[in-house]
Each structure stands twice: as C-alpha cells, then as structure tokens.
Amino acid sequence: MERLGRDRIKEEITGFTEIPSFEEDPSFYEDWGHEEEKFELQKGMKGECAGATVEEKVPTFEDARKCLEQAEALLKHGEYEASITEAYHSCAASAHVPLYTKLVDPFTTEQTMWEFENLLVRTGNAGDKWVDISAVLKDMIDQEPEEELAAEMLQVARDLYDECERVQEAISTPAAKI
Amino acid sequence: MEVKRKEQSMDAIKAGLPRDVCDELDLYEQQIKGYLAGKTGEIKFQKIRLQLGTYAQRQQGVQMQRIKIPFGGLNSAQLRRLADVSDKYASNFLHLTTRQDVQLYYITIDTVADMMRELADVGITTREACGNTVRNVTACHQAGVSPTQTFDVTPYADAFKDFMLRNPICQNMGRKFKVCFEGCQDRDHAGVRIHDLGFRARVKEIDGELKRGFQVYVGGGLGASPSLGVLWTEFMPVEEMIPFSASVVRIFDRFGERKVRMKARMKFLLRKLGFDEFRRLVEEERAVLKVDPTWNDYLGNIAADEIPPVLNEQFSEAPEGTESDPEYAEWKESCVLPHELEDLCMVNIKVHNGDVDSDTARALADISDTYSAGDIRISIGQNLILRWVRGSSLPSLYSALKKINLVTPGPETFEDITACPGADTCRLGITSAKGLASHLTEGMKNGLGEFNELSEGLNIKISGCPNACAQHVVASIGFQGASLAKGGRNVPSEQVFVGGGLYGDDTRLATSIIKVPTRNAPKVVRKLLELYRDERKGTSTSIRLWRD
Question: Which residue from A9, A45, B128, B475 lies 20 to 30 Å from B327 (Cα-Cα)?
C-alpha cells in the first residue's frame, strides 16, 4: 500500500465503479442474500450502539436545603432514622454542586461522597476535617438510629453545606477557572 | 462424556441466582411490563434495555440480545445453555461477534428477563453489553496456552471485568469504552491499538526480580473516524492496572463529549485535549484517587501459569484411514495450533460468518467435554477455539467435528472472512455483509482459490456500514457497506479499504480507496490479489510486504 500508493491502487480498480443500467443487468440493483427485496436505504432508522441520550439535571444548593429542612423536621418529630437518611442525602446534594462544577456527576449518594473526598478534600479544595467523610457518614447511617446520632448527623450536614458553599465560591472564581 | 441436562423450573433458577442479579432481573421484568402497559416511555425504556444489552432489531417487534462473554471464554455448560436459550427464546442460532460476544435474534421483549435468568444460572450476564458503559472485555483467544505468551492475561481481564461491572464510575459515561488484553509476544490477536485501553503482557526485571506488567495503549477506536491508540507506557506493573484504568475512565466520564454523540468516544477527547494534557489529567486523577486495597486482591490468586485441566484419556477411535485422509492432513495443517505444553495443541474451528446453529453448538459443547475439558474460546475472528487438546486425540476429534461440519480449513486466513450482521438484522446496516462474505467464500473454492497460498497473512473484513463492527478498517482488504445511485435506483455498494492490519505496535489503518457496486466486489478482490502477486517484493508472502 505504502509503496504503490493510493492513486495507483485506485487506478487499478476504477474500472469496477461502472454500473450497468437496470435493463442491462438488474442484479446490480440487488444485495446478495436479499435478491427478493428491492435495495433501499432505510429512512428514520436509528442505531442503538451509541446508547441512549444521557439526561442531565444541574444540581443546586436548593436541593440540599430542602433535605436539611426535612431532616430538621423529622428530628423534631422523633423520626430519627428518616432524619438521618435525609441529612445524608443533604450531604450528597451539597457535595454534588461543587463536584458538578468540576464536571463530575455521580450517580448515587455514596458515590457522591466518595468523589467529594477524592476530588475536593484530597486536592485541598475542602478542609482537612472532611478527610474520610464518606466512611464517617457510612458508619453513622449503619448505627442504631437514636436522637443523639440524628442530631449529630444533622450538624454534619449543616457544616458540610457551609463548606460546600465556600468551596463552590472558591472554584467558581475566574482565577480558579484558569 | 455427554453431560445430561436437567430441566430446572424458573423458580429454582431464581432461587439459585445471586441476590443482586435476581433483583436486577426482577426489576427489569417490572420495567418491561411497565413499558408494555404504556407506563414507561420509549426513550426511558430504551436506556434501561440497552444497559442490559437488549437492542431493537431492523425487523419491527423483535429484539437482538447481545451477551457478554468476557475474554471469549466459555465452558461447555455455558455453550449448551446459549444453544438452549436460542431455541427457546430466539431463532435457533448464535452469532459470534468480533468483540467475543454472542448475539441472539428475533426475541420478543416479554420473554427477555426469563432468558437472562437462564443465562445468569450458568454465570453469564448481559449487563453493560451496550449503553455508555465499559463493554465486553476482550482478550487473545490463545491466552493461557500460547507457546509465545509472556504470561496468561485471562485473570487480569477477568479482574478488570469484575471491577467495572455495575461500578458507578462507568454506568453513565458520554459513550462506550472498550478494552482488550493480549498475552502473545509475536502476534496481536486482540488489537491492542484499536481499543480505548489496550494492555499487552510484559515482564521487567526490577530489583533482581522478574515483575509482571503491561505495555499500555490509550485512545484507540474504529468506526467512521478510526484512530490508533497512543502508547502510554512500555511497562506498567500489574498492581497499577486497575487504579490506572479507573483514573482513565473517570477522566473520560468527566471530560468526554456528551452532546455530540458522533464525537464522544475517548479518541476524540485525546484529539481535543492533546495527549500531553490528557496524560496530565489522568496522572493528576491517579494521584488523588483513593485506591481500595481490595481492588488488587485478585493478584493473590493468580498462578504463575494457567493450571491445566484434567483431560479425558478416553476417546472413540477415529474411523480407519482418517490419518491418511488428505482432508484430515489439510485440516491438521490449517486448524491445529501449537500449545505451550508438550503433547497438547489448540484447535481453531472456522465458523462461517460467525453463525453457529444451536444443534451444532450443543454438539460442540459435548465434543469440548470429551476433547478439551469443556473449555472453549471465541476469537475476534468469529471462530471457536479448543485450547486443551491432546495431540493423540486429533484424528478422533477431527471425525467428531466432521460430523457437525466444523472442519473447514483456513481459520484466521484469507479464506476466513469476517462479517458483521449488516443489513440482515442491524438497524444501521446499509448492505448485507454476510451476503457478500458468503459470495466471496464461494469464490474462494472456485476462481479465487488460486490465490490461497499467495494470500497467507491477508484477510478480508466486511462491515455493512461505516461503524466497522467487522473491523474492516484494519483489514488487508476491507469493504464498508454503502450506496450508489443510477437511473433513480439505489445500488448496493462497497467502499474499498486496503492495507490495514493488527500488528501490535505497528498496527495499520487501511486506506479508503474508492466506492464500487457490491456486485463488483469479487472482481476487486481478484484485481487486488493480482496486483499484489505482480508487485510484491521478492517471493516472500509475508504480511509486511502486503502492507509495504
């Protein structure tokens, strides 16, 4: 190929580009294995190997605030387990905002906290106090859901909300973008 | 040794499945019911089914199911189950793909969950066979037994598969992601430079000790805009393989294109960022990635070499005269490959167009139990390989394979044409790749037969459209389905490609030459072979001369 070059090879097979008229040779208009069908280009058919469209939802601190409010209300009504779960979701919703700015869009709550730790704490964007936050939170939600634990979880969620707002502001400044 | 099958009820099958698999398929069944009841829209349901490998077919109202076979490795029970499932739910045949998958056709959607349960019962999953995920992990079909292998890459490919399957980091990427592993030193059976990640076995002396690792290529891919992978490193210790891969996948997920799907594969990200910036991002990611020590737990279980299975010593006698039969001699010369261990060999079974009917598949499963410890591999050339065959059993094996018409000589040669499903069943197919392949195969027995010796090392690959599922852009002679028009009528046509090949570091993409009507494709093949015969240097028939 390299020695002869494309043009030489093209010249050798150019003669085979000729198409006889339908009247001269109708077989040229049939595809092998499909002789009984008229050869046509499919219209409106979409292949699926590319997968389906990915739906994107932009996360906001509003999502995190709603979860925090739910967690507070549930704590007041003695629904400790549900409060802990809501606080956990609030943590993930808060962390999701700066992660999204960093072009990361995790799927699950657990994954979000893991990414937060990797991409925002271990890189120095968030404070050291949040190292191992994903394991800490996981440990908390696995414990017996009591009032003290629910209150502690709520406080963690509030602190993380504040931290994520700070991180978001820092990484959104023009200097950070550069 | 024939393995008797015991029919199991669906309840018994469900009871035996791992919890997560059982839940996943129960959920899928509910989602299918929701879709059929009109509660779930087409687009939402499409995303659900593609993640599990269920495709729409060209024909309305039926589905194609892609089934992942990691590194192409099957045992006889799995092959038998695939055949049974094809009879029960599909159209009585299996199609072997160039990425070592199996595809079944003409399935109705309401039966798919039960079909998957029957497959899961023998350890087969279809999850992430499609969608924007890490697809089937492929590997050299000679892995573990090749006399020229550096080491067996199978356990590494298996660990990679286990790591990525259901992993949240790769469930919703911008586009699909393909990976392969190659263990041979002298051949590239896997295509290390045509994958998003290509790993090739390497060893290196470090502190007086011989360490295992991989040469790594990144960013390769075929399709309408093919790219060869770029060398990342000549040696990456095996301990780094999974953490590095996780970093690459995360960078691709984060920075890859998500709007323009035609430009969403990782090769385009490399082009956009440039290799140096891509490398910087991956290295930065790797530095901060928290590595779970369990990721490398598999390394503790890897033996220095694949442990040979217990091989059967009892075979039926081959019919008298088999060993002096010229057809046997031709088969042995063409289909039997050397093995790492003395007295053993591999047998490469040529499968026309990658299609094997279910009765033949079941018979082959029984044969593999007798002659190859039930071990079978699918190659990217759409063939089946028995890897553990006693040399002394070859005449007997030949007669067993002959009874099911699986002794055609010439696997992995010019006569062994690779073809995708094309317009027969694929929604994107423009022309019938299998139709042209069958016609050319007939030609090999007749007019083109005279070129067989000349064409050693050459190959023909035919894709029905530019997406290159048959890998025509790395073929010596490649055809890509297209259309021309004359007198207001469409004419099935082929874009001709010349000069590609999988040669490891030296892999070449074929050059696009010209478009011809499909009916003239056999004449084009003949002309190109004549040209090669007349213009090649010296008398050698080496593949290098074809390329050069």
Answer: B475
